[in-house]
Amino acid sequence: MDIESNIRNFKDFLQLYNQMTETCFGKCVDNLNSRILNPNEKECIEDCASKFIKFNHKLMSTFVEVQSLIVNRRMKEVEEQSQMMASQISSFNEDQRLSVDISKADSG
């Protein structure tokens, strides 16, 4: 991995972390008068963060699975296109040879 890729991955992680923090804070923290979370807020934040992380892991595993299928399908399409082009080129070359052979036969 190069440095740019590492930086992009770190930015993605920070964005995800910030999103989780904002979501769970907004959902769970009711009282801003204390520096300490009450037991209900603490439990809510732990549950929220856990669900967020589990959801993200599930989403990423599904993405990897689907992406793999898409890449395989695309590779198959490219292979089929290249075979079709090779067939067309071969057909064209055969037509050219026949044309040259007919020209030689007519002039000879």
Automatic annotation (TrEMBL):
Mitochondrial intermembrane chaperone that participates in the import and insertion of some multi-pass transmembrane proteins into the mitochondrial inner membrane. Also required for the transfer of beta-barrel precursors from the TOM complex to the sorting and assembly machinery (SAM complex) of the outer membrane. Acts as a chaperone-like protein that protects the hydrophobic precursors from aggregation and guide them through the mitochondrial intermembrane space. The lineage of its organism: Eukaryota, Metazoa, Ecdysozoa, Arthropoda, Hexapoda. Residues 6-64 form the Tim10-like domain. The twin CX3C motif contains 4 conserved Cys residues that form 2 disulfide bonds in the mitochondrial intermembrane space. Gene3D superfamilies: Mitochondrial import inner membrane translocase subunit tim13 like domains. It is found in: Mitochondrion inner membrane. GO terms for biological process: protein transport. Belongs to the small Tim family. Keywords: Chaperone, Disulfide bond, Membrane, Metal-binding, Mitochondrion, Mitochondrion inner membrane, Protein transport, Translocation, Transport, Zinc. One of its GO terms (cellular component) is mitochondrial inner membrane. It holds the Pfam family zf-Tim10_DDP. GO terms for molecular function: metal ion binding. The keyword Signal does not apply. It comes from the Eukaryota. The keyword Membrane applies. This is Mitochondrial import inner membrane translocase subunit. It is a peripheral membrane protein. Heterohexamer. Its main location: mitochondrion.
